[in-house]
Amino acid sequence: MSSFGRFDCELRSSLPATLEAVEVFFVEFRRRGEAMMERADCFAAELLVREALTNAVVHGCGSDPGKQVRCRLRLRKGRLLIAVADDGAGFDWRTARHSTAATSECSGRGMEILRQYANRVRFNDKGNAVTIIKQIEGGTRYDNGNQGR
Amino acid sequence: MSSFGRFDCELRSSLPATLEAVEVFFVEFRRRGEAMMERADCFAAELLVREALTNAVVHGCGSDPGKQVRCRLRLRKGRLLIAVADDGAGFDWRTARHSTAATSECSGRGMEILRQYANRVRFNDKGNAVTIIKQIEGGTRYDNGNQGR
Amino acid sequence: MTMVTREDNRAVVQPGGDMIVAATIPELRARMRDIVDQGVRDLTIDLAGVRMVDSSGIGLLIAAYNSLRKVGGRIALIHASNDVLELFRSMRMHQHFSITGN
Amino acid sequence: MTMVTREDNRAVVQPGGDMIVAATIPELRARMRDIVDQGVRDLTIDLAGVRMVDSSGIGLLIAAYNSLRKVGGRIALIHASNDVLELFRSMRMHQHFSITGN
Ligand SMILES: Nc1ncnc2c1ncn2[C@@H]1O[C@H](COP(=O)(O)OP(=O)(O)O)[C@@H](O)[C@H]1O
Ligand SMILES: Nc1ncnc2c1ncn2[C@@H]1O[C@H](COP(=O)(O)OP(=O)(O)O)[C@@H](O)[C@H]1O
């Protein structure tokens, strides 16, 4: 397998704070993501973006369609950066981020999923902006493999 | 149709100066291009990249597998930039670029295709690097259209 | 649309769509509640068509487990994809569920 | 592999692969040359499976046209995709060929 080069990309999006808008976003996310990443990475990437976006929409904006959630995704040098921000009050992530839900709790698993699937998770001081880093297998190089003519 | 944001991407590639490598390149080009552009734009974009790469490989490098051709593609704000360079002697593009092959000539149509399909074509002084600009329909914004749930 | 196949106090649920996520759980939650209210005690959730589950989806499955446990019932997840299986495993869901892949 | 269907001095050629471009034309050129050498005078090129044609591909079609014209033959292109039709039109190929879309 030889590599011919590098592929970087960046998506900047601002979407209404509704779960419906999140799903519209993911229709495009998947179409683009599948052309950019290996299948296993697509699942992990989508899951991370989902947890961050859902928290911003639900907790940050109270699902108010008049509010906006900002999302930036960048794939560069084998690293996916996910940055999600809302204009809400934030929260005490210093306490929450080490929480692990009891197995019979019905909520509170978003933070743990971020921790499990990401290589790094950082919040701004206020807690209304999160930056997630995920190492990606097939993200930057494309290999000719056996697809050649 | 509402737009949620902007999608930019950049591909940097260096490939051996053979027509086979060009085809390997296009397998990936198409996979990514189809996720990034409308179908009609994909054809025009591929055609422009083909003409530039084929000239660099054949005329710039004499199809010598020991030589390399460099290619950079950038999609940003509805514009596709295609930059292709080789280490060959270049040519007198000032004369060649306005040429139109007689309809019964068997070669010499690459320049005309660039002129027909691109919005702008520029060469470096020597003539071994070309930069092509193409406006793209569906390049930067993604619309939710009727794909939503 | 979520599909339910019932036989006595057993039911198999096939969630509609290909995701069990925040946006899609209200419908699924209502259906599962009905089923338990109607006396189902042995619930199988067929994940064959499910590509994605998020933390809200996991929460819903746990909620279903909790309400069935209260009435002496049980729940099983079948046909989970590899990605979903790995997620469930990393979230320790096998402590409560019988989970099988496809 | 390029497919050729022959009947008397007529032949229909279906290029192998989905492109007529620099990398793929040597094989197609050889086949078309053989056909003309074998006496075919009425050549139809079926572009149904062809997604892409570049300037080298156009050059090959023109070369085939030229050699057929010398011996009093003719050539027609059928089933061109919209993208390929537009390319042929912008390159003024309809001055020589009968070209139809699909
Ligand atoms: N963007 C945010 N704005 C405000 N609060 C947040 C935000 N993100 C997370 N939180 C808080 O962190 C808590 C834990 O989040 P999480 O682990 O995702 O579980 P869940 O969303 O199921 O409650 C949430 O209940 C919420 O209080
Ligand atoms: N990268 C390059 N290096 C050297 N010469 C080039 C390069 N690109 C184009 N040329 C010259 O310009 C001429 C016209 O190119 P083009 O219109 O593509 O027709 P063709 O490739 O069929 O000859 C070529 O024959 C070649 O002499």
Query: What is the mean pLDDT of chain A?
Result: 88
Topology pattern of chain A, helix = H, strand = E: EHHEEHHEEE
Q: Tell me roughly what share of residues is in helical segments of chain C.
A: 25-40%
Coarse structural class of chain A = alpha+beta
Q: What is the overall shape of chain C?
A: globular
- Measured on Cα atoms, how large is the radius of gyration of chain A? 16 Å
The small molecules bound here are:
adenosine-5'-diphosphate
Structure description:
- The complex is a heterotetramer, with two copies of chain A (149 residues) and two copies of chain C (102 residues).
- Chain A is an alpha+beta fold.
- Chain A is built from four helices and six strands.
- In chain A, strand 2 (68-76) and strand 3 (79-85) form a beta hairpin.
- In chain A, 42% of the residues are buried.
- Chain C has helices spanning 25-37, 55-70, 82-90, and strands at residues 3-7, 10-14, 19-20, 42-46, 52-53, 74-80, 98-101.
- With 102 residues, chain C is α/β, with parallel strands linked by helices.
- The longest helix of chain C is centred in the middle third of the chain and has 16 residues, at 55-70.
- The mean pLDDT of chain C is 95.
- Chain C is built from three helices and seven strands; from the N terminus they run E-E-E-H-E-E-H-E-H-E.
- In chain C, strand 1 and strand 2 form a beta hairpin.
- Chain C is globular.
- In chain C, 37% of the residues are buried.
- A five-stranded mixed β-sheet of chain C has the order 1-2-4-6-7.
- Chains in contact: A-B, A-C, B-D.
- Strand 1 of chain A pairs antiparallel with strand 1 of chain B.
- Bound molecules: adenosine-5'-diphosphate (2 copies).
- Residues 55-56, 59-60, 86, 88, 90-91, 96, 107-111, 128 of chain A line the site of one adenosine-5'-diphosphate.
